[in-house]
């Protein structure tokens, strides 16, 4: 009887986890539609144009996938840290560090064959992102400083350092027509990026839900004291996870540089960290929810250009939708009402 009750409770929790991100997105679109209506636009027309721009043609679908893949990587970067109670808000700094590491390898080893050059660039991007993500964790455990404060400060420091390196360091390209940019040699097809990203998502989902390391992460996140009492070295685990979170940020840059821009320049990762965090919050504890959130955000980015061209609704309304999505995902409305219903039933 007890086992049957536990099974029902687990099934119910799984349904809540799956439905919660969908419900958050629906509410966000409704509220943003009201904002569009108050500003004189037609929300139904705006959303239909957004959908058409994102999925109405082959190029639109390609653009949607192109915007979605880095958001998924950054969503995993945030989610894997968040599982053990480490708030990784320094993703933009990690991405810029990885980008500069890639540019430095291009400058030093650009003459070697493409395949080994690409492998070296991927490794240094992972290392650079991981090390930058480790620094706030080290400050947290050594000096008791909140990781969010350190990460936010490091974002600005690394951004300004990137600007300097692109202009004045030995890796800067002199006499380029494009200011503050460095060309990168390896070029990867979109299909390769899609396949690699799919494999990473599947591996992450399996490890997070079905493996012993994933279980330990959840234990540390839910109850650090219980984790310590169970013999888990929480500090070491959080440091490892912080490095992994930064590594995923570095991988997101690899895809952007190799598959899209083929160069490093100032501002190319702007707001991507915010989108990744939003996707992770939408997904809550669900990998499927994370991917769904990233797809929604990617389609909004892809369709925003069509929106401003074909309607009188400004493309900035996309930012409004994203803000509401993040707000309602953070509140986690479904679980809130679920708990309220349980309390009323108990009374």
From TrEMBL:
Lipid bilayer topology: Multi-pass membrane protein
* Location in or out of the cell: Cell membrane
Chief location bin: membrane
- Domain of life from the UniProt record: Bacteria
Pfam families tied to this protein:
BPD_transp_2 (PF02653)
CDD domains according to UniProt: TM_PBP1_transp_TpRbsC_like
Q: Where are the transmembrane segments?
A: 21-44, 64-81, 93-109, 115-139, 148-167, 187-208, 237-261, 273-297, 317-337
Q: Which UniProt keywords apply?
A: Cell membrane, Membrane, Sugar transport, Transmembrane, Transmembrane helix, Transport
Q: Name one GO molecular function term.
A: transmembrane transporter activity
GO cellular component annotations, sorted alphabetically?
Answer: plasma membrane
Protein name per the record: Simple sugar transport system permease protein
Q: Supply the source organism's classification.
A: Bacteria, Bacillati, Bacillota, Clostridia, Eubacteriales
């Amino acid at each position: 009887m007890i086992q049957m009750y536990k099974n029902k409770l687990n099934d119910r929790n799984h349904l809540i986890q799956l439905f919660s991100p969908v419900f958050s997105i629906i509410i966000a679109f409704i509220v943003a539609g009201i904002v569009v209506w108050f500003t004189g636009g037609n929300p139904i027309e705006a959303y239909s144009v957004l959908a058409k721009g994102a999925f109405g043609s082959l190029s639109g679908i390609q653009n949607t996938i192109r915007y979605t893949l880095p958001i998924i990587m950054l969503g995993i970067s945030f989610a894997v840290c968040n599982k053990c109670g480490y708030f990784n808000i320094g993703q933009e700094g990690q991405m810029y560090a990885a980008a500069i590491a890639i540019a430095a390898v291009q400058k030093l080893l650009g003459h070697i064959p493409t395949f080994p050059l690409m492998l070296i660039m991927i490794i240094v991007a992972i290392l650079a992102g991981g090390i930058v993500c480790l620094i706030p964790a080290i400050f947290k455990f050594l000096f008791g400083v909140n990781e969010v404060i350190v990460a936010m400060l490091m974002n600005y420091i690394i951004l300004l350092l990137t600007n300097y390196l692109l202009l004045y360091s030995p890796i800067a390209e002199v006499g380029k027509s494009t200011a503050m940019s460095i060309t990168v040699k390896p070029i990867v097809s979109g299909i390769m990026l899609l396949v690699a990203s799919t494999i990473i998502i599947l591996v992450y989902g399996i490890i997070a839900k079905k493996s012993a390391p994933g279980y330990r992460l959840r234990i540390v996140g839910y109850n650090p004291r219980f984790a310590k009492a169970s013999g888990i070295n929480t500090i070491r685990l959080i440091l490892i996870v912080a490095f992994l979170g930064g590594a995923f940020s570095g991988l997101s840059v690899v895809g952007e540089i190799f598959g899209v821009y083929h160069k490093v320049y100032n501002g190319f990762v702007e707001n991507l960290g915010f989108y990744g965090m939003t996707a992770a919050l939408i997904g809550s504890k669900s990998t499927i929810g994370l991917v769904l959130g990233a797809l929604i955000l990617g389609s909004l980015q892809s369709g925003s250009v069509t929106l401003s061209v074909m309607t009188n609704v400004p493309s900035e309304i996309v930012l409004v939708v994203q803000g509401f999505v993040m707000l309602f995902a953070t509140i986690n409305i479904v679980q809130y009402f679920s708990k309220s219903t349980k309390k009323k039933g108990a009374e």
